[in-house]
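Supplementary Text 2. Reproducibility record for the structural model of the 157-residue chain.

All settings were left at their defaults, and a single model was retained for analysis rather than an ensemble. We include the record here because the model underlies the residue-level annotations in Supplementary Table 4.
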Amino acid sequence: MNFSPALTLRAARPFVQALFRAVTGFLFACHGAASLFGILGGAHGGGTVPPLQWPGWWAAVIELTGGILVALGLFTRTAAVICSGSMAYAYFSVHQANALFPIDNGGEPAAMFCWAFLLIACLGPGAYALGTLMRTGTATTADDTAADDSPAPVPTS
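Retained model, structure tokens:
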């Protein structure tokens, strides 16, 4: 029997994808909870964001609700697009004015969350998403466990 790391990794993909989704969503929700409720160190190390303050309070609501939805795998793609967009907005409206690169302007978390959520939006929730479970009655779908990574055929005219 031949051992193929590529086949092993391909088989694990839906589960690793689900774990990535759950961890990313949980960490994002923690940011929102910290800002809204002053827990876990509060907003940026102390206190809470004043209610309805633009954009901080609204960003915290997106972080908390979007993070929970993504972590659970409910409305995953829509929630991930909104979360990604909020982090792009945060990066360009708050951080980018301070310096060009994220390492210099403190925008690394915003940039990483933005790209992580964009990836989740493109790839979908992976295995063990509540949305999939509610729709199909199973924790995985055929798309989650497909072994074929080949691209879709390109239509010809």
